[in-house]
Automatic annotation (TrEMBL):
Signal in keyword set: yes
Domain of life per record: Eukaryota
Span of the signal peptide: 1-18
Name assigned to this protein: Peptidoglycan-recognition protein
Pfam families: Amidase_2 (PF01510)
Stored InterPro entries: Amidase/PGRP_sf (IPR036505), Amidase_domain (IPR002502), Peptidoglycan_recognition (IPR017331), PGRP (IPR015510), PGRP_domain_met/bac (IPR006619)
Gene3D superfamilies linked: Peptidoglycan recognition protein-like
């Protein structure tokens, strides 16, 4: 009887330990740069979406930065949970690395219609998303094609909270300006429907100054 109880205790302990390890790993994956900030949405770090390692990076020359550039993915692939959003995000990074020959995914952050924000280059690294603005902007992309419809409420809420987060963390200037990607170059991004929404966002700028830096 003693041996049976001992075996039961060992097996039970093993399962408890496995659960604790799994929980710890999950928590680690969900940690964000902004976990202590009330204004910030949930931000999935690079480990959490299984990002490839960046080939190189450059720090923003001046912080906090002035511009937020809003993008959409531009292809009709949508996601409503972390697993599918992570898969699409990896495809974005693969394209930017392997086809565009950039050093990493171009955006600082990507938002899914699951309501999560996914860390790309992060707050402090120069992006590759809007020529003329890269070194003084945070590029935020919402996964999907929003030519004919808006992102859902979860994604839009995450977008606004991420901007608030940037201000609170002193990554964005309090007098920041929002522009759509099409204001920086000849493109339809962030889609006609979404761009009409962007134009009504606080601090949207009709005629942004073209920066001389990349």
């Amino acid at each position: 009887m003693f041996h049976v109880l001992l075996i039961h205790f060992i097996i039970t302990s093993a399962f408890v330990n496995d659960a604790q390890v799994c929980s710890e790993k999950s928590t680690e994956c969900m940690k964000s740069e902004s976990e202590e900030s009330r204004a910030c949405p949930r931000i999935i770090n690079r480990e959490g979406w299984e990002a490839r390692r960046a080939l190189s990076s450059t720090l923003m020359p001046e912080r906090p930065v002035r511009y937020v550039v809003v993008h959409h993915g531009g292809v009709p692939r949508y996601c409503y949970n972390r697993s599918s959003c992570s898969a699409i995000l990896r495809s974005y990074q693969d394209h930017h690395l392997d086809n565009n020959h950039w050093s990493d995914i171009g955006y600082q952050f990507v938002i899914g219609e699951d309501g999560n924000v996914y860390q790309g280059r992060g707050w402090d690294k120069v992006g590759a998303h809007a020529p003329g603005y890269n070194s003084q902007s945070i590029g935020i992309c919402v996964i999907g094609d929003f030519t004919e419809r808006l992102p859902n409420a979860l994604a839009l809420t995450a977008l606004h909270k991420l901007i608030e987060c940037g201000i609170e963390m002193k990554k964005l200037r309090t007098d920041y300006r929002v522009i759509g990607h099409r204001q920086a170059r000849n493109t339809q991004c962030p889609g006609n429907a979404f761009y009409q929404y962007v134009r009504k966002m606080p601090n949207w700028m009709n005629s942004p100054d073209l920066l001389l830096s990349s």
